[in-house]
Amino acid sequence: MYPELKCIPLVHIDFAAGSSGKGSESRDDMHVIHDSQLDLREIVFVIQSQSNSFHVRQAERRRADLLKQALSLTEKPPVVSLLHSLSDNEGDWSILPLLPHLSYSFGKNSSWIVFLEEETNVKMTKLVQVLAKFDKNKEWFLGKPLHDAESTIIHHYAFAENPSVFKYPDFAAAWALSIPLVVRLANKVKDEPLKSDFTIDLKHEGELVDKEEIFVAVKTCQKFHSERVPVIKKTWEKDALFLEYYSDHADPSIPTINLGVPNTERGHCGKTFAILERFLSSAVPKTKWLLVVDDDTLISLSRLQVLLSCYDPSEPVCLGERYGYGLSQGGYSYITGGGGMVFSREAVVQLLNSGCKCYSNDAPDDMVLGMCLNALGLPATHSPLFHQARPEDYARDFLAHQVPISFHKHWNIDPIAVYNKWLKDDWRAKSSDGLNKSAKTEL
Predict the structure, then answer these.
(1) Which of 58, 256, 269, 385 makes an SS bond possible with 365, Cβ 3.0 to 4.6 Å?
(2) What stretch of H or E contains 343?
(3) Is the Cβ–Cβ distance between 45 and 79 less than 8 Å?
(4) CA-to-CA distance for 376 and 50, rounded, in angstroms?
(5) Residue 13 and residue 177: Cα distance in Å, rounded?
(6) CA-CA-CA-CA torsion sign (367, 368, 370, 374)
(7) Strand 79-82, strand 145-146: pairing
(8) 1 or 308, which is more confident?
(9) Nearest CA among 101, 130, 93, 91 for reference residue 12
(10) End-to-end CA separation in angstroms for the chain
């Protein structure tokens, strides 16, 4: 992160609205637009879309809603762009590598760049009212600020002495940058490399996918057979129809399967690729989806069944919490392993047919898979419902509008209590909220 970014205050503004696009805007709303010194065409909307077909459909619906609202207010609507289609740069989802493109394309004729997620509802008239209060010729960073209660790995343990001083935007609530700030940051991105290679955190409901369509692979080792495996058995194992534990030691009491790959202290690439090969073999039931988790992953399989109904298993889908490595220097995205990695059968077929393999048994499996996906031109599809860390490692407001699918790590927590609080429920009981709870309803 650039030192300058730490010094730009995030002004607390909520752009999100509970409902939009239902009927036309009122005459009063039109007067707001006409009386404002801000023209709608000065605003560029960037929907933080992904290239997976489900997410493209979601983003197209959001764009149609924004344009419908805009056309009820003005004859010439603003630009509404889908992030995944703006360039071929893999790192655009992390925003900073995208800034030079935004500066070049919109720096002369626009005043604001507004970012929103596929499920963020925005009331256009309210947005214009808010933006018009700020001098568009100055640098502004507007959004709903979040902060960590304690230093956490997902933000590189930044500001360890007082993490509350570091504010970052809640992406689900939408956020905005004034063009002067976009231009300056774009120049910084072009002139100076990012100080960290890793991109960790930025800031659906459908018919249930049958249990018989998901195969669950748990990575473990002998030293954790008596410590971590019992937690899985007491919490989420019962929700899996097909599940196998893979270890460096065959223990019939669990049971575990020894894949012939020696245990490593970190990385586990050899074990993960052996799991991928076994998934395509006749040794296990043929399913549409493969879920690979660690032995200290806490997960709701019923919520995962709901989420997977959004995706087409005939496509090469790799789903989970997306991180990035070296994105500003032509790096790659990857699905972090701790929160759970989900692969469609087609994705596994393409990965193994490509000749992709580990450079060592202890290589980081999720990052190697990310490199392979990047080489194949396959996207790593992000869902914020998967979590690489514990609930306390995330801002409370960030989790408040989620129905989470997973968390990771047993460190300094009671994992069974965490599961019961955050992940244990009947998905039908939350059907009115669904996994679409991230849509903000604050205005």
Answers:
(1) 269
(2) strand 341-344
(3) yes
(4) 17
(5) 12
(6) positive
(7) unpaired
(8) 308
(9) 130
(10) 32
Residue 85 in tokens: 């289609």
Beta pairing partners, 209: none
Write out the two tokens for 321: 């919490």
**Beta strand residue intervals within 2-150, DSSP E:** 10-12, 43-47, 79-82, 112-116, 141-143, 145-146
**How many other β-carbons are positioned within 10 Å of the β-carbon of residue 158?**
16
Mean pLDDT of all residues in 375-394: 94
Is the Cβ–Cβ distance between 36 and 129 less than 8 Å?
yes
Find where tokens 């992953």 sit: 297
**Alpha-carbon radius of gyration of the chain:** 23
Tokens representing 316 are 């090469």
Element (H, E) at 382: strand 381-382
- Cα gap 3→6, rounded to integer Å: 5
Higher-confidence residue of 96 and 317: namely 317
Segment holding 353, helix H or strand E? helix 345-353
CA distance 172 to 80: 17
Alpha helices in 81-198 (DSSP H): 99-106, 124-131, 179-191
Query: Do 355 and 300 form a contact (C-beta atoms < 8 A)?
Result: no
Q: Could you tell me which residues come within 8 angstroms of residue 99 by beta carbon, excluding any fewer than 6 positions away?
A: 182, 185, 186, 189
In angstroms, the CA 308 to CA 36 distance is 44
To which H or E segment does residue 422 belong?
helix 415-422
CA-based angle 39:81:313, to the nearest 5?
A: 150
Please say whether the beta carbons of 403 and 435 come within 8 A: yes
Position 174, amino acid: A
**For residues 378 and 197, what is the distance between their CA atoms, to the nearest angstrom?**
21
Residue that is written with structure tokens 């002004």 in the block: 11
Tell me how far apart the alpha carbons of residues 48 and 322 are, in angstroms, rounded to a whole number.
14
CA distances from 190 to 97, 104, 113, 178, 329 (A): 9, 12, 19, 18, 11
Q: Do 357 and 262 touch, CB atoms closer than 8 A?
A: no
